[in-house]
Amino acid sequence: MRIESFRIDGFGLFRDVALDVPAGLTVFFGGNESGKSTLLAFFRFALFGFPRGRKANRHQPLRGGDHGGRLVLSGYTIDRRGSSATLVAPDGSHRDGDGIRVLCGNISREVFENIYAFSLEELQRLDEALEAGDLRTTLFGAGAGIKPETIRSASKALIGRAEEIFPPKKKVGINACAARLAELRKAADVLGRDYDQFDEICRQIEVTDQAVAAARERRILLRKLDALRRERQGKERELQLLEFEVEDMARSRTLLNVKPALLARAADVRSAERRVGQHVKYRDEIPEMETQIQRNRSERESLLGKLGAQWNDHRLESFDTSLGAAADLAGWIARINAAEHAVRKAGAREEAARAELDRLLSGRDEHLNSIGDLASRRNQRDAAQLEFERALHDLIPGWGEAHIDAFDTSPAHRVRLQGFRTRLAEAEAALRTASGKVETARNDLAACKPVDGGGLKANEIAALRERTRLLSRRKASPYWIFLAVAAAVLSLAGYPYPAGAVLAMAAIALWLFFRRRAQLRRDFSVLRERLGLQGTVNEEWFVRAEAYLDRESDALHERQAAREERAKTELKVARHLAEEEEAGRARDLEIAAWRAHLESFRLPGDFSPDSAIDAVSEVENCRRLRENRDSLSRNIAALEALEAVRQSRDRLLTEWRVWLKTLDIPEALAPELAREFFDAARQALRLLSEERTAANRLDRARKDCVEFDAAVKELLEAGERPSAGDPVADVNALGEGLRRALELDRQLQDRDLLMKRLRRVVEEAGSQEIQLSAGMSLSEDLEQDQEELDARIRKDDERLGELRQQKTQLETDARLAENRQQQEATLEEMRRLARRWAVLTIARRMLDDARKFHEQQRQPAVVRQASTYFQRLTEARYKSIRLPLEDGEIQVETSDGGLKNVEALSRGTAEQLYLALRFGYIEEFARRSMLLPIVMDDILVNFDAGRTQSAAQALAEFSKTHQVLFFTCHPWIVETFRTADPTVAVVDVDDGSLRRRPDSSSAAAM
Amino acid sequence: MAHFSFIHAADLHLDTPFSAVSCDGREATFRAYDRVIDACLEHRVDALLIAGDVFDSTEKSLRAQIRFVQGLEKLASARIQIFVVHGNHDPLDGWYASLRMPPNVHVFRERVETCELRRDGELLARIAGVSHPKKKEVRNLARLFPERQGDAFHIGLLHCNVGGETGHEAYAPCEIDDLRRAGYDYWALGHVHEKRIFSRLPWVVYSGNTQGRSIREKGARGCYLIEVERNAVAGEPRFLETDAVRWLAAQVDATAFDSLDDLRTALIARCEELPSSIVRFTVTGRSSLYTDLDRAGTPDDLLLALREQAGLLQHPVWVESLEFSLGPEIDLAARKRNSDFLGDLLNCADLLTAGDLRRELEPLFRRHRYLDMPNDEELQQLAREAQWLCADLLTRGEAV
User: Fold this and answer.
1) Contact between chains at A108 and B20 (C-beta distance less than 8 A)
2) Helix/strand/coil (H, E, C) string of chain B?
3) Burial class (CB within 10 angstroms; exposed 0-12, middle 13-18, buried 19+) of B88
4) Is residue B225 pLDDT above 80, yes or no?
5) Over residues B185-211, mean pLDDT
6) What pLDDT shows up at residue A855?
7) How far is A807 from chain B (nearest CA, A)?
8) Angle at A75 between CA A82 and CA A39, to 5 degrees
9) Which residues of B touch A829 (CB under 8 A)?
10) How many CB pairs under 8 A join A and B?
11) Which residue of B has its CA nearest to A201?
């Protein structure tokens, strides 16, 4: 493989640069910063792209152009632009990205940069490796396509990580896990021991359970037995008590002395007992009833006496005391009372009328107050009527009672009438005064001077005076006539103003002058005519005119004064006339008001207020007369009414007496007494009835007492019992004795039955006790036995509780399960770590194997070749290079056979050693794989002249098989190469341009 | 010739501790057992046959024993007979609490015996069985079974390893011919946790365990329901799922992802597609994320975040772990062809044998004997991951 040509479109300071590169050796010569290093970077870039990392210099095109370029490598064209690359085969086919790598013999960027295209920096890198003391790695790294430090750090990382997981001694990582697992297992053993007790616990639970069950059974039996025994004893005690009781009861029964014969008459005894209450009642009532009958009889007789000598029981029984009769009586009495009341009331009314009359007629001698006086009373009334009518007639013709009633005679009305009188009089007086004033004023008017209408008027005088004054002023020529004349003269004298204008002005002035003069003359003639002053118009004329005008003015003032006086008097007359008219109107209004008042009282229209005031007294008199008449009429009516009610009452009393007779009541009796009579008869009749009822009841009581005594006596005899003297007490004693005897007999029977039953129960309990206690050893005290048993059961129960708790604890204990879980988790973690460790360990082994392989397989050939080159480069000062397998010390053999470590070599010799090693590798690689172009950037600077020459010679020879591009800034190195190989091509590099020197063959710079 | 049915279950492993799973996991084996009992009651079977490993451990688990007896009591009241043999996990010499078994239970002891299954006096089947007397039973127990007697349906109940099944301890090893020799109709076997029908004439059946216990036991777990008619199995045994918690393995290819967030989102999306289960995710593919994930703590953080989110889903998923079978973005095959150091390394790696790798790993596994040395397959995977790791470490900073 060789570079045939290249083209840089834009890369660093290169732009549009192309070069055909010959095979063999080409020296690129250029000063510092001419672009040699950029060119080296371009070749690296063209083949491998940009290095990874942000710090890498990407040689951006400084002079423009597309970033990248093209490289033709043995017919293959690599076109690289930025990070993209294409490969075109000689046949024009496109290859993928890996094709470039294949083209480069699958070497990596690192190998290319270290071995094939290197600068002094890379050449010296072996030196750093020497200082690090790992020469082999560095050397083989250089040849291995991997940076030496990468291999070293990879190895270190693998070992470090593996030791983190499984350090030989430390208790971390997997060792820690193992320790934890061991602990867990130990703990599990301890936990497991608890389970050994499980069976024993189960057995004990079973045994204790059985024991407890048996004890409980025995306890139940004991309780039953105890209960039985207690019950039996109780029953026995009960029986004994009953026997005592029966004995007592038998004794009581004997003492009661109730014979069977009496028991047989029990029903009779009970019957007698039931009658006791009634009997006692009768016995107590008999004397009381006798007393009552006696008292009744005497009371009745007293009443009969009150009614009358003829009254006895028989007549009494026929007297009607029915409710109807009582009601009729009450009705009569009410009616009579009402009639009496009416009479009293009419009497009172008549009394009142008479009192009124007395009041009216006080002063009169007549005083009438009875029905007998009625006629005279009527005469009085008629006289009063006549008097009234006469007074009325005299008052105002046509007036009736209604007028009198309507007429106001109150003091207020009198005041009003007086008011009318005063106001009418005042109105009349006012009218008279006004008329007087009018008369006076008219006389004054008649006395006034007559008014003259001749002479000049005031305005005429003033106008004439003004005109006179004006004319008197205008009689001299005005000064401007002289001015006009002066102007005319001046113009004629040649004054510089235009003569025409001055003359025109003078003409106008003269025209105005004459016009005024004509006017004055007209005015004088008119004035003269008006004033009537003849003569010439001059100063004197004007004085006269003024005097004339003054006179006219005085006459005018007098005329005006007379006219004003007359007008004033006329006004006065007119005002008084108006006042008179007003007074007349006021008087008429008063008269109208009065007439209206008269109308309202229906008085005659010609009535004066004084007449009206007199009428008031008259009306009042009429009214008094009428009242007299009315009072008399009322008195008469009251007397008539009284008479009527008296008659009615008398009729009623007559009927009442007839009714009394029908009732067998004395007719002379007044209503109240008649009522008393009726009540007495009625009470007497009631007493008679009561007496008869009491007598019947007394008979019944007496009979019952006799019968009861007989019955008691008979029962006492039958029961052979003595009498206590009182039949009631006897019956009670019999009844009580009988009841008690029967009750005792019943109780005795009951107790007998109960005793029989108790005896049976006691017998049965005894036999059960014997049955239950069969086969049991019992102490006398069953309670104690039970207590002992209970204590035993309690103890066993507690034990059972404990055992069951232990059992449950073991059954539910999750500790062991959790422990196993943790064991498993730990084991899993160990497996995971182990796996990781295995990968790391195997990787480390692989790395070691590869390193050994390189040392063993690759080294000999490389070192062999390198030794040859080293000998040449050092002009045979050194024979060979030695690289022992196991130890890292690289050594060189001098021509005399001595060995030197690298540290002992000079810088230049060391560089020669490194160059030789590279040549060795390139040779070996070329032999094994392929030829690749070699690019070197000024690597001979540290070589002395002789060795530079040797190196140039060696490179010239090397370039026969390999393409070598050598960059330098030293002309002598160029010359050295030319000496070594006259056909060497030289390309000048200068500020981004390439130019092949003409003495070289075909290549041409562009 | 009555028709009857029975359920064949095995490897209940009651009270198995679940590794790295929340506490609910511990109940899973019990819940699975409850489902077996419920299935017996639901299908009104005549018998329940349990082919060993009722309990997970010979160590003491009283809880497991009590729960077991409680389940059997339920069946006793339904007049269902139970036949039990013990296996290597719960051999006869283990610790047993003196719990009283219900009368309908027959536990086979160390000598082979044959029992009769009857219904209302009618003989339904003869059942022969034997328990493991100790944890490591190396005898061929199948050979101890007597030959069939009479026409009745014959069932053999045994916990054994037929044909040297890998992945399980070779306790009570036997060959299928040993089983055939006895002339039985149905061999109800336990020990192998994957359900499997070895043979149909006679029926040689592993019912598998009733509950998966780790990611190694993925998928549905349960028992078989067998219907017998005219002394022959009618149709195929019907598998009844009993697992309370299911283990699943899921893969997510991270090749297309540029960030951990993308990966997390993809994992959650995958969780949403899954039923409620315990899941182990394997992240595959090749991605630049390899470098990120190689950083200490990152995978753990990712797992925690994932668990938090997955636990809140409609069908909550417990992410058991995240496995990374993820390679860096390096074409190892291409790099192997190179003559550089990495190429040499990859070529050298190919030369490493399983023995070499075991020797490397021996210090750890020798010291910690609870851990099992990886098998060849696992070693291959480990070596692959080691190559990825080396390639990643050596090429970090390489040109793009």
Assistant:
1) no
2) CCCEEEEEECCCCECCCCCCCCCHHHHHHHHHHHHHHHHHHHCCCCEEEEECCCECCCCCCHHHHHHHHHHHHHHHHCCCEEEEECCCCCCCCCCCCCCCCCCCEEECCCCCEEEEEEECCEEEEEEEECCCCCCCCCCCHHHHCCCCCCCCEEEEEEECEECCCCCCCCCCEECHHHHHHCCCCEEEEECCCCCEEEEECCEEEECCCCCCCCCCCCCCCEEEEEEEECCEECCCCEEEECCCCCEEEEEEECCCCCCHHHHHHHHHHHHHHCCCEEEEEEEEEECCHHHHHCCCCHHHHHHHHHHHHHCCCCCCEEEEEEEEEEECCCCHHHHHHCCCHHHHHHHHHHHCCHHHHHHHHHHHHHHCCCCCCCCHHHHHHHHHHHHHHHHHHHHCCCCC
3) buried
4) yes
5) 93
6) 67
7) 10
8) 45
9) 20
10) 202
11) B98
**A929 — contact with chain B (CB < 8 Å)?**
yes
Task: Determine the residue of chain A that is closest to B67 in CA distance.
Answer: A811
pLDDT band at B226 (very low <50, low <70, confident <90, very high): very high
**How many CB atoms are closer than 10 A to CB A880?**
18
* Among B residues 55-74, those touching chain A with beta carbons less than 8 Å apart: 57, 59-63, 66
pLDDT of residue A72: 92
Which chain A residue is nearest to residue B350, measuring alpha carbons?
A846
pLDDT of B281:
92
The answer to whether residue A552 scores a pLDDT higher than 90 is no
Whether residues A192 and B95 touch (CB distance < 8 A) is answered with yes
Measured in angstroms, the CA of B293 and the nearest CA of chain A are apart by 13
Examine the pLDDT at B399 and tell me if it is beyond 50: no
Buried b (16+ CB within 10 A) or exposed e, A381-417: beebbebbeebbeebbeebeeebbeebeeeeebeeeb
pLDDT above 90: percentage of residues in chain A = 7
Cβ of residue B344 closer than 8 Å to a chain A Cβ = yes
Q: What is the pLDDT of residue B164?
A: 76
B343 reaches A (C-beta below 8 A): yes
ipTM of this predicted structure: 0.80
What is the overall mean pLDDT for chain A?
Answer: 82
Q: Within an 8 Å CB–CB cutoff, is residue B394 touching chain A? A: yes
Find the CB nearest A831 among B66, B98, B371.
B371
What are the CB-based long-range contacts (under 8 Å, 24+) for A547-553? A549/A461, A549/A464, A549/A465, A549/A468, A552/A455, A552/A456, A552/A461, A553/A458, A553/A461
Which pLDDT belongs to residue A1002?
Answer: 42
How many CB atoms are closer than 10 A to CB A729?
A: 13
Region A657-664: mean pLDDT is 83
- Note whether B371 contacts A: Cβ–Cβ < 8 A: yes
Position A695 scores a pLDDT of 85
Q: Which of B15, B98, B344 sits opposite A854 (nearest CB)?
A: B344
